[in-house]
Design brief:
Blueprint: E1 2-5, E2 11-17, E3 20-23, E4 26-29, E5 35-43, E6 50-59, E7 65-72, E8 75-82, E9 92-94, E10 97-99, E11 109-117, E12 122-128
């Protein structure tokens, strides 16, 4: 798992999960083995409380993991890897965007995804495999 802070002190987290995971009111469900996630935690100003602002998943039917995260302005960059059961299959999905994923079925491919943080949600800007 990896973490980063934005300029407002919010915590952005990237990692992976299997099955389902819940961030506040958002439940993510994996498509197969492990899927990657990126989520934003907004701390309560000095109250010891806070809330999840948003969460997104990416992955397909094989093992997909988020391993790094960085923030620049409203851009949230997630690094990790994706694998697929069929070479060049578009079965890896980030949000509603299918990614022409892993180039082979025997190894993982590096993935870089960029999300735009719009405070209460995030949209996928682009991916590079």
């Amino acid at each position: 798992m990896a973490t980063a802070l934005d300029t407002n002190g919010n915590v952005l987290v990237a990692g992976y999960f299997a099955g389902s995971v819940t961030f506040g009111n958002t439940t993510l469900t994996s498509a197969g083995s492990n899927d990657l996630f990126v989520a934003k935690w907004v701390p309560g100003a000095g109250t010891g409380t806070g809330s999840w602002a948003w969460a997104q998943r990416g992955g397909g039917t094989s093992d997909d993991q988020g391993l790094g995260i960085a923030v620049s302005g409203t851009s949230v960059y997630v690094t990790g890897y994706i694998t697929n059961t069929t070479a060049n299959d578009a079965g890896v999905v980030f949000g509603s965007t299918a990614v022409a994923g892993a180039t082979s079925t025997s190894s993982a491919d590096l993935v870089l995804a960029c999300y735009t943080d719009n405070t209460t949600g995030a949209t996928l800007s682009w991916t590079q495999v």
